[in-house]
Amino acid sequence: MSTSTKFDHPTNANRFNQDQARTHWHDSALWFIREKRDRMSKSLPEWETLRSCASQIKAHTVSKLADYLEEFEKNARARGAIVHWAKDAEEHNQIVLDILKKHEAERIVKSKSMLTEECHLNPFLEKNGIEVVDTDLGERIVQLRQEGPSHIVMPAIHLKKEDVSETFHQHLNTEAGNNDPCYLTESARQHLRDKFMQADVGITGVNFALADTGGIVVCTNEGNADLGVSLPNVHIACMGIEKLIPSADHLSIFLRLLARSATGQPITTYSSHFHGPREGGELHIILVDNGRSNLMNSDDYRNALKCIRCGACMNTCPVYRRSGGHSYAATVPGPIGSILNPLRDAKHHKSLPFACTLCGSCTDVCPVQINLHEQLLTLRTEVKNQKQLPVSKTMPMRIASWVFQRPKLYAWLGGIGKFFLRNLPRFMIYNGMNPWGKNREMPEAPSESFRQQYAKRAKKNQSK
Amino acid sequence: MRVALFVPCYVDQLYPRVGMATLDLLEQLGCEVEFPEAQTCCGQPMLNSGCDTDAAPLAERFLEIFTGYDAIVAPSGSCVSMVKNHYEHIVHGDSRHETIRTKIFELCEFLVDVLKVDSLPGNFPYVVGLHSSCHGLRELRLASDSERNTSEFNKPRQLLQMIDGITLADLKRKDECCGFGGTFAVSEEAVSCTMGRDRIADHLQAGTQVLTAGDMSCLMHLAGLIQRDKHPIRVMHIAEILAGYEVPQ
Ligand code: SF4
């Protein structure tokens, strides 16, 4: 029971909305970024062309993914990288552990990789006695708080500076009540510097892998990925197989779209290219499937593999903004998460395709033109097909459909319904059974339906 | 032109005035309008709940009833989009659907694109706040939205501006969802109401006296909140304003 509540979006969202002031603050923080993104995207007259180019490149890559992966592997090896393949999270984690063991590594610095979150690498390594430190400021903050990230680009967007101050006071011994962002950032910087210096291995994610060069590209704003892989000798790069693009020539399109969509910056501060290991070092690249090839085989959801994880769909989603990333109880929240998670595990994530008004804003904001809201609609049927919809939801629809197939019965029942709506005492309409009426009035029922008025008018016209 | 009027089920039952306004407006503009009485519901609530098999017979009925007209017009972007864009998942290549898709129009779209209306009579001396309902906006493209970088246009706004005396309110977020979303309004009651209240706050700061939209469903949700919170905003469907109806008191 407790696990089913944990994954239930309405319950979590309801809890989030209890604190309306905070809900509004969260909404405005994200809307601010959405507006910045609007300004930046509108400063490029070719924006929509870029989107469709990116979408086509990704669609093409996905359609020939196996070939491109082989090409990538060959070229990466030729540059001295060691390439591993992992079919799922478990294999991925084991590969990482094996590399660490080989090097007798005990301390790891990591730069944001949603993939390692997806694979739950941190708890796995910690269980094996290895210290893992997330080095992106936001990631480090949520790591200290033992929370998951609430957003894929801004993992600590749910926290105010007061919350950060308290967390740092607890874990980094900073001054209590000092909420100055400069002071807090500087303290984190000092703390992380030590971790960088002591690290045996650096792990990063991958934003783009280039098939024709065998290189990988990592985008960060804090430069921590560069530091994390420059000090230790061993660099492990973990990537989902969908991160591939055919050629370095395509990269500029994605780099222009990514940062603008994510944070409204023209480009991320650091776009670091890694082509093979540095001298005397080792570069491991782990290519992870973990359910991705299933998506590739599905006409309805293949498009989701185009995702470049910019987070724009979260920033624009009116539901995400007002329910918070944690309400999705998943590594990737928001619109794209509501597609990816149920496809992996419909039972646990069955409420996510319904955590959406189908407003379509995500579809129009997405830099690679994923038809997000359409997929969310299709996914609802999928949830029903997997028998994950409760009878309390399917039964009313069955009955309604039956009635709507019988126009006379429908008209008659409509009349009765309106009669009750007009005449029942308030307490019978507004009670715990009626979620509509908790914060809203019901519509006032008219005495006649449109069809009755229409029929009357037709009769009158005839007799004239 | 022989036009079939498609009145969504909840409009039929709860908002007959909106149906009458649509009918009046179309007749004023010279259309020969018919209301096929066998119509009930297009099946959107079922499909949106994941119950495609319950939506399918309703889609079947719809195609049956509405085949053969020059145009089908409805005062609801959401229901029109259901027929136009989402039926194909449940009727699987029915040839009647291919025809109907090109003949079904949301009211404002029909007035602007088909009838090419360029003036409307009447005087409406109010500050009107236009809510852009999502399916009309992003599925039927009745207006440009703030996410895409395309040239600006807005068909409902264009029509409202033809009426004397109207002032259109300037919103801070001109095309954000109101939070209705069909069964979402009930299953995610908390978020739905927060979203609705945020939209209303935007209209209050913009001085909206009459709130309008092309979808009565959004307006039903917003009106419910306005009434509960006792805000001085009146709610009218765009058809009522365009047809010259009085502001309800
Ligand atoms: S689905 Fe589109 S908007 Fe959302 S994170 Fe992926 S690329 Fe960005």
From TrEMBL, chain A:
Signal peptide: none annotated. InterPro entries: 4Fe4S_Fe-S-bd, 4Fe4S_Fe_S_CS, FTHF_cligase-like_sf, Helical_ferredxn, LUD_dom, LutB/LldF, NagB/RpiA_transferase-like. Transmembrane segments: none annotated. Keywords: 4Fe-4S, Electron transport, Iron, Iron-sulfur, Metal-binding, Repeat, Transport. Residues 441-464 are annotated as: Disordered. It holds the Pfam family LUD_dom. GO terms for molecular function: 4 iron, 4 sulfur cluster binding; metal ion binding. GO terms for biological process: lactate metabolic process. PROSITE patterns: 4FE4S_FER_1, 4FE4S_FER_2. Residues 454-464 have a biased composition (Basic residues). Residues 298-327, 347-375 form the 4Fe-4S ferredoxin-type domain. This is 4Fe-4S ferredoxin. It comes from Blastopirellula marina.
TrEMBL record, chain B:
GO terms for molecular function: oxidoreductase activity. Pfam families: CCG (PF02754). Residues 3-83, 128-222 form the Cysteine-rich domain. It comes from the Bacteria. GO terms for cellular component: cytosol. InterPro entries: Cys_rich_dom. PANTHER family: LACTATE UTILIZATION PROTEIN A (PTHR30296:SF0), UNCHARACTERIZED PROTEIN YKGE (PTHR30296). This is Fe-S oxidoreductase.
